[in-house]
Write a structure and sequence with these properties.
alpha/beta, Rossmann fold, about 40% helix, about 15% strand, S-adenosyl-L-methionine, O-methyltransferase activity, methyltransferase
Length: about 280
């Protein structure tokens, strides 16, 4: 290298050393599926949730959850890595053609429900709010041959599609459909079968009735059994529900109640629109 070029290179190096390493916040983030822009690391004296409003106000958060910034590409990756039986894939596609398709559980929720059935060794489960039958079919597929799904819905119309796919999945013999108001159907089961006969119950029906459903199911589910509650994040409306938002208010009140209910062990999982799992202690 010529002497002039060498001197210039040394001067550039000295200048870079004086400036120090590039700031993480100023360095460009590569674009792509796994390169969601991240906030600069918080200063030691100002942890996440500090007075400067970083990250989650009022909370110390050491790891940013994927759910806070999941892209369509990343959710596609989740779907491609979810075991979804072909019959449930067809059901999902047909449900997309009817009104209220957004009420169907997501494939990863269906997979989780099936796993919970297996983990519990469940034989008797209940699906409150069948709609077109995704969750009931997912649980029925995971049950043993002598298993039973009590499928409750107030509307027979979407149940027609559910019946079709129960048959296609080969689980019709495991399903008992009950059409009518949810509270009445639960009370009927309580009188007919007695308390503690269920291993697992899934609630995905009228949000304003969730607390009533929960209290009845605490009687119907055995100690050690599980109540899974859908929509407990409710599109974010549980954070500050308006006075007119009766469903959002009901869900926010139930979440607050579950947090301190000594009868259950509880976890709110940010899957789908939020699913809360409640294990009955006694």
């Amino acid at each position: 290298m010529p002497a002039r070029g060498c001197a210039a290179a040394k001067a550039t190096a000295r200048s870079a050393l004086a400036r120090g390493p590039a700031s993480p916040s100023s360095a460009p983030w590569p674009r792509g599926l796994h390169s969601v822009p991240r906030a600069a690391p918080a200063k030691p004296s100002s942890p996440p949730g500090g007075a400067d409003g970083t990250f989650v106000a009022g909370e110390v958060v050491n790891k940013q959850p994927v759910a806070m910034g999941m892209s369509p590409e990343l959710y596609g990756y989740v779907l491609r890595n979810t075991r979804e039986p072909e019959v449930l894939r067809r059901l999902r596609a047909e449900t997309a053609t009817v009104n209220g398709a957004h009420m169907q559980v997501t494939p990863e929720q269906g997979s989780l429900l099936g796993l919970l059935v297996e983990l519990l060794g469940a034989v008797r489960v209940l699906d409150l709010g069948v709609f077109t039958g995704y969750s009931s079919t997912a649980m029925a597929l995971a049950l043993p041959e002598d298993g039973r799904v009590y499928a409750l819905d107030r509307d027979e119309r979407p149940m027609q599609m559910a019946r079709k796919y129960w048959a296609e999945a080969g689980v019709s013999g495991k399903v008992e459909a009950m059409v009518g108001p949810g509270v009445e159907s639960l009370q009927t089961l309580l009188q007919r079968e007695g308390p503690g006969f269920l291993d697992l119950a899934f609630i995905d029906a009228d949000k304003r009735q969730y607390e009533t459903y929960y209290e009845l199911l605490l009687q119907l589910v055995r100690p050690g059994g599980l109540i899974a509650i859908d929509n407990t994040l409710f599109h974010g409306r549980v954070v500050n529900p308006t006075p007119e938002d009766k469903a959002g208010q009901a869900l926010a009140a139930l979440n607050a109640k579950l947090l301190t209910d000594p009868r259950v062990t509880v976890v709110l999982v940010p899957i789908g629109d939020g699913m809360t799992l409640c294990r009955r202690r006694r």
